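can u do me a favor
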């Protein structure tokens, strides 16, 4: 069983953990892969530690944001998944500049709710459980 790197602060989910099935579940069943580790990262330091761990172990790597793609790019069979959906999923608004800062694991619902509080709106997605980051990854 693999253990997280020293000073890792997020959740390190491996097969056998009670939340493993939920951690590898995807919107489309064909996108689900049996990862060796799902790393629910809390900050940039966790991401760096996870990247170094994956490189040192020679593991395939995937990043999961808030999206629901059916292609399977958000998981890695036998690899490690950096999952942003739990801790890096917020949206912060700067109303003076009319800017929204969005975490990589956020979904449109989060962005919309934060925007509306300041009388702002986005011109993005119409499906609130999809990720705004999906538009940036093509």
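np, heres the sequence
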């Amino acid at each position: 069983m693999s253990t997280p790197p020293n000073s890792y602060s997020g959740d390190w989910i491996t097969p056998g953990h009670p939340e493993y099935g939920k951690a590898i579940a995807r919107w489309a069943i064909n996108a689900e892969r049996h990862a060796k580790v799902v790393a629910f990262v809390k900050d940039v330091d966790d991401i760096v530690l996870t990247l170094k761990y994956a490189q040192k172990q020679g593991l395939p790597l995937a990043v999961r944001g808030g999206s629901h793609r059916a292609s399977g790019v958000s998981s890695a069979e036998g690899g490690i998944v950096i999952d942003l959906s739990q801790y890096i999923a917020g949206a912060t608004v700067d109303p003076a500049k009319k800017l929204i800062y969005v975490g990589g694991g956020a979904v449109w619902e989060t962005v919309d709710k934060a925007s509306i509080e300041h009388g702002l709106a986005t011109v993005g997605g119409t499906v609130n459980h999809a990720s705004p980051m999906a538009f940036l990854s093509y």
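Residues 91-136 form one domain. hope that helps!!
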